[in-house]
């Protein structure tokens, strides 16, 4: 069943964000990542956010931004449980990457926790390197930083 990748509707950001938070468990499997869903990512940076739609159902989403110095950063990417295994997160990343390239991005980054083996494997499959960095967020913990230069041709 195909899904459509569409821009996040900034004129309805609060409503759509509310829908994502109401379905949080279906996207994040018991991990509480609501704090990463700050309204800023949807209101101020929402022009970079994407939704994967199956008719009226949000099957997946990606929140990111592109900085003036050429960094395409993805804050969140998630696929709703019933839609996993269909390449939706890969399609979201591909669309974001294409948009970031058009805006002049030269590199991509994202982060996850060291225990998130699925995220690490997925991002590596996108051609990103994964580096564990101690105290990355200043909280004493370790973070996995994904990176990929965009000067190479290829997939998302």
TrEMBL record:
N-acetyltransferase domain residues: 3-151
Pfam families: Acetyltransf_1 (PF00583)
InterPro entries named in the record: AcTrfase_GNAT_prd, Acyl_CoA_acyltransferase, GNAT_dom
Record key words, sorted: Acyltransferase, Transferase
Keyword Acyltransferase assigned: yes
GO molecular function: acyltransferase activity
Broad class of enzyme this protein falls into: transferase
Superkingdom of origin organism: Bacteria
Entry annotated with the keyword Transferase: yes
CDD domains: NAT_SF (cd04301)
Enzyme Commission number(s) from the entry: 2.3.-.-
Listed name of the protein: GNAT family N-acetyltransferase
Species, as recorded: Tenggerimyces flavus
């Amino acid at each position: 069943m195909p899904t459509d990748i569409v821009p996040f509707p900034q004129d309805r950001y609060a409503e759509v964000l509310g829908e994502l938070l109401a379905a949080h468990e279906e996207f994040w499997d018991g991990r509480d990542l609501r704090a990463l869903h700050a309204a800023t990512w949807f209101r101020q940076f929402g022009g970079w956010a994407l939704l994967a739609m199956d008719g009226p159902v949000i099957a997946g989403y990606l929140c990111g931004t592109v900085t003036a110095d050429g960094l395409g950063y993805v804050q969140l990417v998630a696929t709703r449980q019933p839609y996993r295994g269909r390449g939706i997160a890969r399609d979201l990343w591909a669309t974001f990457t294409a948009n970031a390239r058009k805006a002049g991005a030269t590199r991509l980054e994202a982060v996850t926790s060291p225990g998130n083996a699925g995220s690490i494997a997925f991002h590596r499959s996108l051609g990103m390197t994964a580096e564990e960095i101690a105290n990355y967020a200043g909280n004493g913990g370790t973070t996995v930083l994904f990176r990929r230069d965009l000067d190479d041709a290829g997939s998302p």
